[in-house]
Design a protein that fits this description.
With 273 residues, the chain is α/β, with parallel strands linked by helices. It has 10 helices and 12 strands. It has 2 domains: 133 residues, 3-Layer(aba) Sandwich (Rossmann fold); 117 residues, NAD(P)-binding Rossmann-like Domain (Rossmann fold), CATH 3.40.50.720. It binds NADP nicotinamide-adenine-dinucleotide phosphate. Belongs to the shikimate dehydrogenase family.
């Protein structure tokens, strides 16, 4: 059987094996998809062994998305642009890399009735996921994209590559900004569990807030958004399912239904508490 896997560290609690099994069941495809623990030092050798063992496709998550770029012999345009690979496809003796995070985010926003076209968007973070999100927002026709990051130089570098209508704003200066249509948290700050320090002025109520994280990691940002009276709040579980659907289609040539799988993993996540 062809083998598939998600690589990362930590990876034990990954929902990806369940998501891909559920997609496969829609088409009667029995999927051998496993979670494989690999850190930055072991990733290259682990991926090579996986390919020798029948590996045909892989997802890559923290902290390996940039390392995966280097291990690919070919990159899709969107992976090259954002310098990040979350999907690997075995083509003969080589790996081709793609990035499905940006399109996954846009599809999930659309599921929530949010179209980025014409919106004024604030993006918190400048890591791999933020880069994928930033290009996706510009492709979708965002009117303005303000990028801010704890390490300001990374936000400046990202805005420079993006060009207008992207620009940066120092985190501390966000309190002087007018209200945004959409505030997107693409930082990993929530994983530490600390309260999220809401950076916007009290009167600058955002229309919608979205955290790329899900589960416990999304709670601090979403709680802060609620306290700021944001009109809509969403976590990134739907993005996880949508980016997985895009990977699944690349590997198997068919597009799965995401709504029932989203409901299934939401129930699993709620049960974890
Ligand atoms: P990453 O490349 O490691 O980037 C982390 C980002 O978070 C950087 O901008 C970093 O700022 C910032 N950050 C970390 N700790 C912070 C803190 N205490 N306060 C403020 N900023 C902080 O990670 P990534 O791959 O972009 O992932 C970011 C988040 O998105 C993670 O929570 C990940 O789980 C989530 N994600 C979700 C999906 C999905 O499908 N739903 C897909 C991809 C990623 P510095 O530059 O200053 O270090």
């Amino acid at each position: 059987m062809n083998r598939y896997a998600v690589f990362g560290q930590p990876i034990a609690h990954s929902l990806s094996p369940r998501i891909h099994a559920a997609f496969g069941a829609q088409f009667g495809i029995a999927i051998d998809y496993r979670a494989i623990e690999a850190g930055r030092e072991t990733f290259a050798a682990t991926l090579e062994a996986f390919a020798r063992d029948g590996g045909r496709g892989a997802n890559v998550t923290l902290p390996l998305k940039e390392d995966a770029v280097v291990l690919c012999d070919a990159l899709s345009d969107r992976a090259r642009r954002c310098g990040s690979v979350n999907t690997l496809l075995r083509e003969g003796e080589r790996w081709a890399g793609d990035s499905t995070d940006g399109v996954g985010l846009l599809r999930d926003l659309a599921r929530h009735g949010i179209d980025a076209r014409g919106l004024r968007v604030l993006l918190l973070g400048a890591g791999g996921a933020a880069r994928a999100a930033a290009f996706a927002f510009l492709d979708a026709g965002a009117r303005e994209l303000v990028v801010t990051n704890r390490t300001a130089a990374r936000a400046q570098a990202l805005a420079h590559v993006l060009g207008p209508p992207a620009r940066t704003c120092a985190w501390d200066a966000l309190r002087h900004q007018a209200a945004f249509d959409l505030v997107v948290n693409a930082t990993s700050a929530g994983h530490a569990g600390d309260a999220f320090d809401w950076p916007l002025a009290a009167g600058a109520t955002p229309a919608a807030c979205y955290d790329l994280s899900y589960g416990r990691a999304a709670r601090p940002f979403l709680a802060a958004a609620r306290a700021a009276h944001a009109r809509a709040m969403h976590d990134g579980l739907g993005m996880l399912v949508e980016q997985a659907a895009e990977s699944f289609e690349r590997w198997h040539g068919v597009r799965p239904e995401t709504t029932p799988v989203h409901e299934q993993v939401r129930a699993m996540l709620d049960a974890r508490g």
